[in-house]
Amino acid sequence: MLTIKAEVQKDRKRTDGTYNYISRAVNATEVATGINNALHGDEKYSWFLG
User: Which site from 1, 7, 18, 27 is most exposed, i.e. has the minimal number of CB atoms within 10 Å?
Assistant: First the structure.
């Protein structure tokens, strides 16, 4: 039988994993958007291409 502390830790791990997945997905989308904008001549994003 799991204790309350064990249940809370289990819930935190589950939540942290979801947050990390969503955070990585958002970051990847922002990078892809920045590269796309740079390729289409947007000066704000020109640093993506160096």
Answer: 1
